[in-house]
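RETRY 2/3 - previous attempt timed out on the joint model. Re-submitting the same 557-residue input unchanged.
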Amino acid sequence: MPTLETNRAIDAVWRIEAARLIAGLTRMVHDVGLAEELAQDALVAALEQWPESGVPDNPGAWLMAIAKRRAIDMFRRRETLDRKVTEIGRDLETQEPPTAEPDFDAIHSSISDDLLRLVFISCHPVLSTEARVALTLRLLGGLTTEEIARAFLTPEPTIAQRIVRAKKTLAQKKVPFEVPAASELAERLASVLEVVYLVFNEGYSATGGEDWMRPALCEDAMRLGRILAELVPKEPEAHGLIALMEIQASRARARTAPDGTPVLLLDQDRSRWDQLLIRRGLAALERAAAIGEPMGSYVLQAEIAACHARARTPEETDWPRIAALYARLVQLVPSPVVELNRAVALSMAFGPAAALEIVDELTGIPSMRNYHLLPSVRGDLLAKLGRQEEARAEFERAASLTRNERERELLLKRAAE
Amino acid sequence: MRFMVMIKSDERTEAGVMPTEEELTAMGRYNEELVKAGVLLAGEGLHPSAKGARVKFTDGRPTVIDGPFAEAKELIAGFWLIDVKSKEEAVEWMKRIPCTDGVETNVEIRQVFEPADFGEAYTPEQRERDEQLRLAARKD
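RETRY 2/3 succeeded.
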């Protein structure tokens, strides 16, 4: 009996079917936690039966049938119990009112609608960001608790607890299983996109662990992002996010040197960029543009990334466009870091003088006081303007602020020039 | 991880017989499932080998052989490039390819190389350096 192989096949089926299964079940039983339990029960049944019987032709339908049967049994038991309790005449005040058996065969609009509801409930604002991330990867990504724990370098019980608590919160707060009303859709969608991008960034610039990147997390995020863009095809920001992720991921192979040092964008070997991902990213951007709404922050960031992706050499980069895109981005997302990026683009496009004015204004902002890239950029602009003495002081300051040894060396070298 | 799935030719595809409307619809629906699941990266169908050619190198010198080629079953009629978690997941998706009764369909599933696959030379020193870098990078 090829048990190990069958188990792997079951894992694969789970990955493919979990979200749809849980989404469909949640609509029936109005409780995402219960729905997941039922789906898990069905999976356990599969683990017991499939090694004997083989994987059925339509595993999704098989799992759903089992899960529904369990749900019906459970509701009937509960109903019988409620009836008995009433007959005995016990005090019912502490009991839940008898729940009518859900209409398990009700024809619903579509699987996509259920999936979208599942997306919104997993990223609901009543949950902490951490909980949203864990729940989204669990319910929509089909990841096991162990996989999530490994990806976030967090002990498994912590993740398990987080998921249990999140489901409890959703039940306690009676969060409905629905797509938000038009009036709050934009805000709720933003929360979903944020969760997906957070997962991507955790993989792209890993904040912990042995690896500089954790590609599996990037892939999970991109898969979620692609699913999302299909679920809300009329939302430009969903296309913007997937475009941004595809284009950033296209550089994965080029962003580290063989010895492990990070390679800056302009120094990267562009022949190592993944053209397939770039094409996909640009296509997603076109879809966003076709919707014809003003660019949101993900579309803008993706457009900036696309400027680099389109340039065959660093010299071909359309810096004026990048500077203009940053100007629009900083209006949407006021942030000194974005403003600093705009200054760099401006200096590339029009020379150091205009950029220096912006950077000088940023030096007064408290949150930027210890941000080493500010004196580093300022030093660079001053050097270009021939103000060597001031430039030296800035590089020295930047060197004292950075905690990266290599970067410190580089900055001190520039200070000595 | 990425897999390339190649669907093999048969007498029909090699003869340039176009799929029926029914087959096309079924395949379209299947591809849509792959897209909706965020799995499909690319996919194309190929013309019969009669429209293709082979370039063979002998001692560094190329010889061009025009199609068609014999052994229809060894040829490729189309491909999917998919992004999945495991070979098993790739297999599971491919088990769902719509197939016509009475026609034998063969697909071959092959994993695409990724940078990590070249990681044999990933030494402890390298790992330590990366650790340093990581510590530095998180401060950005």
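Residues 59-88 of chain A form the longest helix (30 residues). Closing ticket.
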